[in-house]
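Async update (no meeting this week)

Hi team, since we skipped the sync, here's where things stand on the single-chain job. The sequence we agreed to prioritize is pasted below, unchanged from the tracker. I ran it this morning and attached the output directly underneath so nobody has to dig for it. Comments welcome in thread, and please keep replies under the output.
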Amino acid sequence: MWKKKTVRDVDVKGKVVLLRTDYNVPIERGRVAEDYRIRASLPTIEYLLDHGAKQIVIIAHLGRPEGRERELSLLPVARRLEKLLNGAVYLYDGNGVVPDKKVVMLENLRFDKGEEAGSIEFAKKLVKQTKADIFVQDAFGMVHRRHASIVAITKLLPSVAGLLLEREVVAISKALARPKRPLLAIIGGSKVEDKQPLIELFAKTAETVALGGRLGLNFDNRAPNVIVPLDYHYGKDGKPYDIGEISTATIIDLVRSAGTVIWNGVVGKIEEKEFATASKLIAEAIGRGNAKSIILGGDTASFVVGLQERDPSLEYTLISTGGGSALEMILGKKLPGIAALQDKK
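Output:
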């Protein structure tokens, strides 16, 4: 199930640890608007601190900057992490020597074009700047990329997985390989071409595949276990923006009888409150049910996290921090950021 070394398999005492996290979070008015990915990284950071790491140097990215864009600085992220850790986090802008502090965050990796290019020279620069002894990969949402901080860096330092990465891979692997039956896959969205491989996969492995959003309007050649919405709620322009009460009730009934639920893609236009009803009711049914539950996809995960913050009684087995990585993993594709890590002996 998990064959890579993790932070538990190496001695971090007295070492400088270079930690890759996924802190690509929404920023509004200079503040972090939703911090789930930051909170999800805390177990790894706390483990490193508790086990005597000399210094933790966090590397991450934010958005898709063209050069050094002030509004895409990681400063708001560093401030939020500081509050969550209840300890100082120093943001290093790349000038001079990395400060000799316990927890340091480097400025947005994507300010340098070498990051997305997968440059070994940029990776060498990171190692030289930080004087790192060990690299820990904990950015599950990025391990499907071949960026410098994902693959190139592993050629320069002993490289292991963080606790978040391990947890997500193991949870998704178990849900796929040994799901508690019946397995229900809920797949939402609007573009069939984007979700076709996922639908075809679960049509073979799940007892039921329930489509939401506009997928049901455009999806043909259904397998017997694939169901589509029977009714919709329409906007003033006459277009369907949410599934209707009958379709919602059908999915909720399936959720209540499922052993495992995997959900990717909201079933309505959740940006508008009047069209978020079905997604909300389905999320609540999953969160209050007894099934193992895996929530995948950026929009779906953010939506569910928002509900959970307002109602902490909602519980899910895993709300994944990785959209593309999780989907590629489910589809059986190799994740280069994981493949590059050290194997257990």
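Quick observations from my side:
The chain has two domains: 7-166, 179-330.
The CA atoms of residues 144 and 335 lie 5 Å apart.
Reply here if anything looks off.
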